[in-house]
Amino acid sequence: MASTAFADSAPRACDLLVRADAVITQDDERRVLTDAAVAILNGMVIEVGDYATLDARYDPLQRLDMSGKMLMPGLVNGHTHLPMTLLRGFADDLPLMDWLEGHIWPVEAKLDEDLLGIGARLGCAELIRTGCTAFLNGYFHERVTGEAASGCGLRAVLGEGFFAFPSPFFPTAEVCWEAIRSLEEHFRDDPLVRTAVTPHAAFTVPPEVLAASFELAESLDIPWQTHLAESPTETAVCLGKYGMRPVEILRREGLLSPRVTLHHCVDVEEKEIAQLAASGTNVVHNPASNLKLCSGMSPVQAMLDAGVNVGLGTDGASSNNQLNMFRDMGLAALMGKVRHGDASAVNAQTALDMATRNSARCLGWPELGRIQAGHPADMIALDLSSPNLMPVFNHVSHAVYASTGMEVCMTMVAGEVLYLYGEFRTLDVSGLRKEAVRCAKWVRNASGK
Known about the structure:
The chain is an alpha/beta fold. It folds into 2 domains: 2-73 and 379-413, Urease, subunit C, domain 1; 75-362, Metal-dependent hydrolases (TIM Barrel, Alpha-Beta Barrel). The chain has 16 helices and 16 strands. The protein has helices at residues 2-9, 51-57, 96-108, 113-129, 142-152, 173-186, 207-220, 232-242, 246-252, 270-279, 287-292, 300-306, 325-340, 348-362, 395-402, 429-447, and strands at residues 12-24, 32-41, 44-50, 58-73, 75-80, 132-139, 155-162, 193-199, 224-228, 260-264, 282-285, 309-312, 379-383, 408-413, 416-420, 423-424. An 8-stranded mixed sheet has the order 3-2-1-4-13-14-15-16, covered by helices on one side. Strands 5-6-7-8 form a 4-stranded parallel sheet. A hairpin with a 2-residue loop joins strand 14 (408-413) and strand 15 (416-420). Belongs to the metallo-dependent hydrolases superfamily. MTA/SAH deaminase family. This is 5-methylthioadenosine/S-adenosylhomocysteine deaminase. Residues 70-417 form the Amidohydrolase-related domain. Its cofactor is Zn(2+).
């Protein structure tokens, strides 16, 4: 009996014990713990609680003292085009269609895998620096982006973007189907990288091809994502081509389901919102991009009230100029209030949910976006000594309204620290700076500007 009692009281093994002044758990109760700790084993959280209790309970191989810091789940970027960092600031202050057709698409057609890899690594560095640990991507030659993400320790869901018309990347939809199957096979055993089927939009891909691509997603059991109802102009194009609004096109083809994530949904009506909710379709809000392209303000609170799962994304760095989820969290909350004429709309907790748990569902990876036992140890720390975070009355409020992303001092995925106090542990950022200069020259030449 004595030996059993001793065994029961002996400290338990864990790989890492992280201490912090506060932990925003984002668990089901949305607990915020003070003077707390997180115990991690094999890349998973095994317990979150009072520091004194966990300190006595565990014998960690390593300790990480984040005193004076606030831990929170790594943010989840529900919509981006990572290699578009190469086009950051290249075509500003333009409406959506002019921006796409006159500036972005012509340069994109000339991109190669080397350039895309540089853009992807630049994007990974920015995500890590600003506290994002997972992202849903859509672009070209996605194997390159997946290898960049996996190599630096980030989680990614990748989608090969395609149009109905021939492109330099895919002359036909069928060629794209093979690329998607190949991508799925390539990353099948990678714990950090998954795939998705990614038609560009309802105005660039006809209904029958959208439906065929959805069948492919079902056969591979992976998510299906597309841009939808991004602006009134897009709606007008769909009405002119098919006599239907964007949501109706998807509904007629049976493409509203929990497998589906729709990006933007700015120009949606009450009836359409009800259809999205009833079908379990996910939506990703992109406030900075929508503002910059003057696409409009999505009715986020109305969608949430109807029961739609709404995540949050930055879109690409060419239509946002940042991949900083903290900025988009703040904008989502502020825009929501103006859009609905209600200061309580899209409150701080809602915006944080959108950037964590809700976006995780949009990725088809619902176990992400929280610090909770049995979930991946993906977390970040913010330095509470930053002047803009003093004093502290409400930690969630600070995360959404006061933080800029530059207070992030630690980023961790699966228990591995990727960034700590200014040091990138998985990326050569100084080398990336040189590559970025070379890429800027290439973009100027490719665009003729």
